[in-house]
Each structure stands twice: as structure tokens, then as C-alpha cells.
Amino acid sequence: MAGMFIAVEVDESVRGDAELATRLEQACPVDxxxxxxxxxxxxxxxxxxxVLCGLCIDAAPAGGVRVIKLYDGSTLGA
Length: 78
Ligand code: SF4
Fold this sequence. Notes:
By secondary structure, this protein is of the alpha+beta class. Helices cover 24% and strands 26% of the residues. The protein is built from three helices and five strands, in the order βααββαββ. The protein has helices at residues 12-15, 18-27, 55-59; strands spanning 6-10, 33-36, 39-42, 65-69, 75-76. Residues 8, 27-30, 32, 50-56, 67 line the site of iron/sulfur cluster.
């Protein structure tokens, strides 16, 4: 199920980065990212647990990951 309040976008340029996938999996306190077959996977059912901590933004290269607050249209990591 997709998030009602939060969406996460992973740029195509970093989606296949296995190291980043592992970093994101470890960084996110609510398990929104998973490393699967060397790719970054977004765990849709956990999206609304996002606490907007920004750790995933810090773990990724600039513009690699964006967290979108669907309820007000603003974005972390834009
Ligand atoms: S902002 Fe924090 S809680 Fe939200 S997806 Fe990124 S690491 Fe996870």
C-alpha cells in the first residue's frame, strides 16, 4: 500500500547502487528502505511511519533520494 502522507522517490541514477541500498536500509529508523538484489527498494507499507529525520537524504548523493510530504507538497532533499 502506498503512503497517504509520505512518498519517497529514488532517482534512477542511484537505484542500482547496492552500497547505497545497504546504507539506506541501515539509516532509516522505520525501515522504509530495503536492499534487494543489489537495488534500492522502497517499502511502501512503511512510508507513513516516516519521521522526517533526513537521515536517508544525508546517506544518499545529492538529489538521489527525495521524501515528499504529500499533505503539504513540500520535499526533503530536493
Ligand atoms: S526521513 Fe528518516 S524516517 Fe523518513 S524515509 Fe528518510 S530516513 Fe526514513
